[in-house]
């Protein structure tokens, strides 16, 4: 299965991508996670990407397209993938269409007011990228990853002012992809409010249609 997950910042793309990856036995490829690791490691890509990410803007297309192309060429992606956070622009979608065919693009949609709460309460594991929420999806032991015991961190772009900027960037540059994939007969719409498990089951149902 070759899937793209669309949706505004905090819609639950990473959360659902992790569940879908386990269910479908294909890798989750998160461009946000790859970029955050590049920033943490101080690579050339990370140095170029950091200022864009910290201010809620998109990293330039040429950098992200080259990075995703490299990742899609890895062996584990041959059997399929779940792309979380890519494409984010029409130019990225066009580049992706030249690399591979897709089975579906799942759009997670929800009320905008929910997005601020989800982003500002998020905590992430810097080691294995597991995502938590202090109220809505807490770890078993406060402040520590359930899977590896690493102390959880707050993402640099989860400050409320940056979250608002990310939502604005999404509306301008990424929301047009909904029509792009609808026009190509690939779009599956999934309402993303409710329990994480309920949304997962809705997604599985949508993929059968
Ligand atoms: P990226 O990491 O992709 O961020 P994003 O799209 O803003 O999405 P998020 O990771 O914030 O949210 P999500 O939808 O994955 O939600 P999550 O599951 O975490 O990108 C970050 C930055 O990198 C960008 O701003 C850009 O600069 C750069 N970048 C990345 N890709 C790029 C590209 N292709 N081109 C250019 N630049 C790029 O859930 C959010 C919270 O809600 C969590 O706390 C979670 O526990 C909670 N939650 C999830 N589901 C539920 C639920 N059902 N009920 C209650 N809480 C829930």
List the defining traits of the structure above:
209 residues; alpha/beta; 5-stranded parallel sheet; 9 helices; 7 strands; 48% helix; 14% strand; binds BIS(adenosine)-5'-pentaphosphate
The coarse silhouette is: globular
Number of strands: 7
Summarize the biggest pleated sheet. 5 strands, parallel
Straight-line distance between termini: 14 Å
Low-confidence spans: none
CATH topology: Rossmann fold
Chemical compounds bound to the protein: BIS(adenosine)-5'-pentaphosphate
- CATH H-level name... which superfamily? P-loop containing nucleotide triphosphate hydrolases
Helical percentage = 40-55%
Number of helices: 9
Which band does the percent of strand residues land in?
5-15%
CATH architecture: 3-Layer(aba) Sandwich
Mean pLDDT: 96
Give the radius of gyration: 16 Å
Strand sequence of the main sheet, in spatial order? Answer: 2-3-1-4-7
Give an overview in words.
This protein has 209 residues and is of the alpha/beta class. It has a single domain (2-208), classed as Rossmann fold. It contains nine helices and seven strands; from the N terminus they run E-H-E-H-H-H-E-H-E-H-E-E-H-H-E-H. Strands 2-3-1-4-7 form a five-stranded parallel β-sheet, with helices on both faces. The chain has a two-stranded antiparallel ribbon with strand order 5-6. It is globular.
